[in-house]
Amino acid sequence: MSLYIASLNSGSNGNSYYIGNDREAVLIDAGLSCRETERRMRKLGLQMSLVKAIFISHEHDDHIRGLEVLSRRYQIPVHITDETLGNSRLQLDAHLVRALSPDQHTAIGGLSILAFPKTHDAIDPHSFVVSTDRGDGSAIRIGIFTDLGHVCANLIQHFQSCHAAFLESNYDETLLENGRYPWPLKNRIRGGKGHLSNHQALELFVRYRPSFMSHLLLAHLSQDNNRPELVQRLFEDASKGTFVVVASRHGESEVYAIDGNYDGQAGIGATADWIDNPVRATRTAGSGAEVAPAADSSPKPAAIGHSKIRRRRSALLNRPGQPIQTTLF
Question: What is the pTM of this model?
Answer without folding.
Answer: 0.85
